[in-house]
């Protein structure tokens, strides 16, 4: 992918990279997720430097970007989490401890929102982001498909207007009953329940708030 030398949208001009990004990775998919092989959800399809759209392989896991910011756009920087646009976080920057901070969380392709009686696409995670510092102002929201926030609870039932459910897309959801899987910075995996106290959940998503949560 040559990510250290090119902007993301430049890499997508290479047919070899296009083929690579369309290759599904089984370990990045939850067996219970019913999403397609490729991300075909219109507003999250990435674009190359010429504006051409490309489907990329779907994943069931997104980076944890922030503890409280609800709306994630293509230019969301300087977040409180570990993975976000232009993140350059080192282990030394995670002062709450690597075993106490979230790195990656589960996000399924779609969830049913009972209050609105609708199935909502969650911008299920992609393994590629073509936004932010790529010399192109995209209309797509591919960054929101690759990272998420802990602004609301796990498997949150949106309280937004049913014709505007954008914030419901930026959290973490699963098709498991009762919660979702998360990877911590130390590599450990924990199933977090959807009844987890929201303050505790947000503290887990913050790398240096001085309130480490110990399991």
Would you kindly provide a written description of the structure presented here, covering whatever features stand out?
This protein is 11% helix and 17% strand. The protein is globular. A hairpin with a 4-residue loop joins strand 8 and strand 9. By secondary structure, it is of the alpha+beta class. It has one domain. The strands form three sheets. It has a five-stranded mixed beta sheet. It has a two-stranded antiparallel sheet with strand order 1-2.
- Helix and strand sequence: HHEEEEEEHEEEH
* Average pLDDT reading: 83
H/I helix tally: 4
Query: What amount of the residues lies in strands?
Result: 15-25%
Low-confidence stretches: 131-140
User: Count the strands?
Assistant: 9
Radius of gyration: 17 Å
Question: How much helicity do the residues have?
Answer: 10-25%
**Order of strands side by side in the largest beta sheet?**
7-3-4-8-9
Main sheet: strands, sense, barrel: 5 strands, mixed
Report, as a whole number of angstroms, the end-to-end distance: 37 Å
Structural category:
alpha+beta
Count of spatially separate domains: 1
Key phrases:
215 residues, alpha+beta, two-stranded antiparallel sheet, 9 strands, 11% helix
SSE layout:
Blueprint: H1 8-11, H2 15-21, E1 46-47, E2 53-54, E3 61-66, E4 102-106, E5 110-113, E6 118-121, H3 142-146, E7 147-149, E8 179-184, E9 189-193, H4 198-205
Parallel strand pairs: 3-7
Antiparallel strand pairs: 1-2, 3-4, 4-8, 5-6, 8-9
Could you write a compact summary of the structure shown?
The chain has helices spanning 8-11, 15-21, 142-146, 198-205; strands at residues 46-47, 53-54, 61-66, 102-106, 110-113, 118-121, 147-149, 179-184, 189-193.
């Amino acid at each position: 992918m040559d990510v250290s030398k090119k902007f993301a949208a430049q890499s997508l001009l290479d047919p070899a990279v296009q083929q690579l990004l369309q290759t599904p990775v089984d370990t990045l998919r939850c067996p219970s997720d019913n999403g397609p092989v490729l991300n075909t959800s219109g507003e999250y399809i990435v674009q190359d430097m010429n504006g051409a759209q490309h489907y990329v392989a779907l994943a069931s896991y997104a980076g944890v970007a922030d503890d409280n910011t609800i709306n994630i756009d293509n230019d969301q920087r300087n977040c409180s989490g570990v993975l976000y646009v232009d993140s350059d976080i080192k282990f030394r920057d995670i002062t709450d401890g690597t075993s106490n901070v979230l790195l990656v969380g589960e996000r399924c392709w779609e969830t049913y929102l009972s209050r609105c009686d609708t199935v909502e696409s969650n911008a299920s995670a992609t393994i590629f982001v073509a936004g932010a510092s790529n010399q192109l102002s995209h209309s797509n929201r591919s960054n929101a498909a690759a990272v998420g926030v802990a602004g609301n609870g796990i498997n949150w039932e949106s309280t937004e207007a049913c014709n505007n459910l954008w914030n419901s897309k930026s959290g973490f959801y699963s098709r498991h009953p009762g919660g979702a899987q998360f990877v911590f910075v130390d590599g450990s995996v924990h199933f977090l329940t959807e009844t987890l106290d929201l303050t505790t959940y947000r503290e887990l998503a913050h790398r240096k708030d001085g309130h480490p949560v110990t399991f």
